Amino acid sequence: MRFSRIFVSTLLLLAAASATELKLRVLDPSSAAVAGAQVELLQQNTLVSVTTTSVEGLAVFHNADHGPYRVRVLAPGFAPLATDDVSPSASPTTVRLRLSPASETVVVSATRGPVPSNAAGAVVESLSAGQLQTMRPVATNEALRLLPGTVIETAGQRGGLSSLFVRGGDSRYTKVIVDGVPVNESGGTFDFGVVPVSQTDRMEFVRGAQSTLYGSDAMTGVVQMWTRAGSTPVPELRFGADGGNFNTANGYASLAGAHGPFDYNLFGDQFNTTGQGVNDDYSNSLQGANVGVAFSDRVSFRVRVRHSNNRTGVSGAWDFNGAPLEPPDSDQWARQNNLLGSAELTVAGPSRWQHRFTGFEYSHQRTNVDVFADPGRVFDFPTHAIADINRAGFEYQGDYQARSWARTTVGYQFEDENGFVGDLDFPPLVHGLRLNHAVYGQQLLTLGRVSLVLGARFVHNQTFGNKAVPRAALSLQVLKGGAVFSGTQLRFSYATGIKEPRLEESFARGQGIIPNPDLKAEENRAFEAGLQQSFFGGKYAFTATYYNNLFRNQIDFAILDPVTFTGQYENIDKSIAHGAELELHARPWSRLSLDAGYNYTSTQILQQPFAFDPLHEPGQPLLRRPRHSGSLLLTWLGSRWGGNLGGSFVGRRPDSDFSGFGITHAAGYARVDVGGWYALNSRMTAYVNVENVLDKRYNEVVGYPALGANFRAGMRFRLGGE
Question: CA 180, CA 177: separation in Å to the nearest integer?
C-alpha cells in the first residue's frame, strides 16, 4: 500500500513537471516542418521567452506555468503568425503558417534577424525554393535578373563573367553571402555567372547601403543564399537529369533526412554545354553538404560546405551590337575552383537572448589563360592571370528581445584576408594580407504604426584604418485603410556604405606601379524615401522608392610620370547616382504570385582627373548603367504542376569596346523566359525550361553576344522522404 502511494505520487510529480513544458510544432501549408523559425512566448502582452524551431519544426519553452500564452512566429518567406490561448500540455501544440500576402513577408537579410518586410526599413526581394525549382536557373545571375532592382550584365554566354549593378553603383558594390560565408574577392569583385543554385532553399536581395550590418562591399546591396536542410525521418533520395540544345547536359542527386538530433543534406550537380559559338563551352561541378546536430532544444551546431569547380571558354569581345568586327578568341579559357565552409553554434537563451557563433572560410582560385594571339584580333596576347584568395574569420551575433516590440543586435567580426593576384608571365605577383576587426550594434523598435532601425558599425581595416558606419531607417504607417485601400506606409533611410581596396590597389608593386599604403575606403552616402500602398487586404502592393547615392573616394590609377606611365592607385574619383524604382507585388491566390519592377537610374561622373577615354570624363554617365530597366516574374506553384513566366528588359546604356572601334554604347534588349513542371505521380516529375524564348540577339556587355533561345527538358525522381 505504501509503495502504491509512492508510485502514484511520483507519477503526479512527473505529470506536473511535464506540464511546465510548453511545446509547439510549426508547420507550413503543406504540413512540412519549418526549421529556424523564431517563436516568441508572451503572457498578458509581456514577452516571456524567445527560441527557434528545430529541423522537426519544434519549439520548447521550459518552466512555463499553466498559461494561457500568446505565441508569435516569424519564419522567412511566410506571413507573421500570432495565436492566443496556448497552454502547456503533454503533446505539442501545432501551428500552421500561411504564405505571405504581397505586402507582408518575413525577411532576414535587412536586420540579420526575422522581421516583417514592412518593418525592415529596406527593400528586400526574395526567391523561394519552389520558385527556384520551377525556374531551374543554371547560375545565380539567371535567377537575380528576374528580381526588381537588378541589372545583370554577363560577358557572353554560359559561364561568362557576370556582374550585378544596383542603384547605379559599381559591380563591386554588392556583398554576397552564401551559408553565412562572405564570398566576394577582397575589394568586392564577384562573378555571379558560375555560382550554381542547386539545393538553394532561399535567396534574398536587399537594396541600399548595408555596411552597418555587413561591412565592406555592401555599398548598394546584399545578396544572401541558404542551402536546404534535411527534415524527413525517412531518408529522401532525389535525383534527375535534363538536356537541351547546344549539347547541354545536367545531372544531379541529393540525399537528405533527419534522425533524432541529427539532420543532413548531401548533394552534387554536374552541368556541361558546348555553347552556340566558337570557344563557348562551359562546365561546372558542384558538391556540398549541410549537416546539423541538436545537442538540446536550446543548443544546436551546423556545418555547411560547398565546392564548385568550373571551366569556361572565353571567346572575348568580337560581335558589337550585331556587328562582328573581329574574330572570336579561339583558345582563351578561364577556370575557378571555389570552396566555402562554415561552422555555426546557436544558443537560445538565457531567457530572451539568442547567440550565434560562426567560423567561416572561403578559398577562391581563378585562372585565365590565353596561349597565343589569334590573327585579326586587337590587343590579343598570351597571358596567364591568376587569383588565389583566402578569406577566413569568426563572427559572434547576439540578439536580445527586450520586449515584443524591441530587439537589440550586437556583434563582433574578425576576418583574415590573404591572397595572391597577378600574371605569371609578368611577375612579380601581388601579395596582400589584411587582419580586420569590426563591432556593430542595431536597435529595432516597432511601436504601433512606427518602426525604427538604428545601427552603427566600427571597423578597423588594416588598409584604411578606422571607420564608423551609421544607418537609420524609419517606417511609418500613415493610413490603415480598409477592404480596398488596405494600408499606406512611408519609409525613409539614411546610411553610409564602405568598400575596401582590392589587393591589387593596396599592395601592387613593380611594372610601373608604386604601392599606396594610405588608400582610404570607398564610400557611399545613401538616402532613400519610399511609399507602399496595399490593396484588397494586402494581396496587392505597389511600391515607389526614390534613392540618392553619392560615391566618394573612389579608387583609380593616377599617372605620376607621363613619360614612363609610372603611377599609383589613389582615392581621386567621385560620382553620383539617383533614381526611382516602381514595383508591383501581387498574391491574388496562395499559389499565384506576380512580381514586377521598373527602374530609372541617372548617373554622372563628378570627378575623374585621369580619364583615359572621353566616356570617363566628368559630366559623363557611368558605364553600363542603363537609365531604364525592369523585370517581371509570374509564378504558379500548384500541388500537381507549376510554371513561371519571366521577363527582363534593359535600355540602351553607355559602354566601350576599349579597342579603338568607336563603340560607345550597348543596345537595349528584352528577354522572355518560361518554365514548368508536371508531377506524373508523387515520385516522378517532368519539367522543361526555355530561356530567351523569342531568340533575341543582343549584348549585355558590348562585344559579347548573349545566348540565343535555349531549352532544357528532363525528369526528376524522389525516393523515400516520408
Answer: 6
CA–CA dist 640, 297 (Å, integer): 36
Q: Please compute the mean of the pLDDT values over residues 203-231 and round it to a whole number.
A: 96
Residue in the block written with cell 599592395: 507
Distances (CA, A) of 183 to 328, 333, 360, 421, 521: 31, 22, 10, 16, 19
**What does the chain come to in residues?**
722
Question: What distance lies between CA 395 and its chain's CA centroid?
Answer: 19
Q: What are phi and psi of 34, to 5 degrees?
A: -110, 110
Q: What average pLDDT does this structure show over 626-653?
A: 97
81-95, 395-409, 439-453, range with the lowest pLDDT: 81-95
Q: Which residues contact 401 (CB under 8 A, 6 or more apart)?
A: 40, 47, 50, 352, 354, 407
Pairwise CA distance, residues 78 & 347, whole Å: 24
| CB crowding 532-570: b at 16 or more within 10 Å, else e | bbbbbebbbbbbebebebbbbbbbbbbeeeeeeeebbbb
Architecture of domain 16-96: Sandwich (2.60)
Residues 208, 122 contacting (CB under 8 angstroms):
yes
pLDDT tens digit string along 18-33?
A: 447 889 999 998 888 8
The CATH T-level fold of domain 225-720 is Maltoporin; Chain A (2.40.170)
Separation of alpha carbons 593 and 606, rounded Å: 41
What is the torsion angle, in degrees rounded to the nearest 10, for the CA atoms of residue 292, residue 238, residue 340 and residue 281? 180
Q: Which of 707, 703, 713, 704 is nearest to 695 (CA)?
A: 707
pLDDT for 240 equals 98
Helix (H) / strand (E) element for 195: namely: none
Domains 16-96 and 106-222 share a fold: no
Task: Measure the CA–CA gap between 182 and 552, rounded to whole angstroms.
Answer: 24
d(CA 721, CA 228): 14
52's grid cell: 527557434
Tell me if the pTM is above 0.85: yes
Q: Give the largest CA-CA distance in the chain.
A: 108
Q: What are the φ and ψ backbone dihedral angles of 155, each rounded to 5 degrees?
A: -80, 85
Indicate if the pLDDT at residue 14 is higher than 60. no
Locate 412 and state its grid cell.
563582433
Cis peptide before 428 (omega within 30 of 0): yes
What pLDDT, in 10s, does the model give residues 459-495? 999 999 999 999 999 999 999 888 899 999 999 999 9
Q: Under CATH, domain 106-222 is a member of which superfamily?
A: TonB-dependent receptor, plug domain (2.170.130.10)
Q: Which helix (H) or strand (E) holds 698?
A: none
Beta-strand ranges (E) seen in 564-680 are 566-589, 592-607, 628-637, 641-650, 653-654, 665-666, 669-679
For residue 238, how many other CB atoms are within 10 A of its CB? 18
Q: How confident is the model at residue 13 (pLDDT cuts 50, 70, 90)?
A: very low
CA within 13 Å, CB half, 66: 2
The domains of the chain are located at 16-96, 106-222, 225-720
- Strand ranges in 448-484 using DSSP code E only, listed in sequence order: 450-461, 465-479
Q: Calculate the alpha carbon distances from 252 to 51, 272, 708 in Å.
A: 35, 12, 25
CB-based contacts of 403, cutoff 8 Å, min separation 6: 47
